[in-house]
Design goal:
Length: 211
Amino acid sequence: MKIDVPRVSDELELRNFHDIYDEEDSELEDCKVVDSIFENQTPGRVRLSNMVIKNCRFTNTDFQAIDMTDVIFENCDLSNANLSKSSIHRVIFNNSKLLGVNFAESSFGNVQFANCVLNMSAFGESKMEKVKFHESGLKSTDFYDCKLKKVEFQSCKLDGANFDQTPLKGIDISTSTFDTLTVAMNDLKGCKVSSYQAIQFAALLGLIIKD
């Protein structure tokens, strides 16, 4: 699956994330932010574009309804941040910690999560198109009532993830691992699974498999 990558300039001005408070519209763009600590903040409705954000901490910050376009996060910690009702397009989260992040009721397009920890994060009632999760931890992550289109889970840990009310037709989870998943059998129709996973789902159905 081809995903549009963030369109980020080569030449970016170095800024601090706290500069957002100096901007009239809570907006940062055309800049690089490195080593900023922006924890437990409530900056209002934020807009980010054409940015690289590296080695920054945003734990417990309220980013509800944030609008992000063409942004790359590298080695960042957004644990327990609130990003619900957000618009996230052409964004990469790389090697970042997103433990317990609230992404509920958000819109994702051309987004990649690579080598990230997303355990116990919440994506409920979100719309996702062209989203790739690669080698990421998604234990007990909530995908309740999501609309998934061209979404891939490559070599992820999905144990305990909740896909209740989320159709998985055309979604490939065959390279990922789990002991248990919450998913309705009719929502599994058309989901791409490995032969081992097919046996797991059969066991969850209560079937006894004999060779």
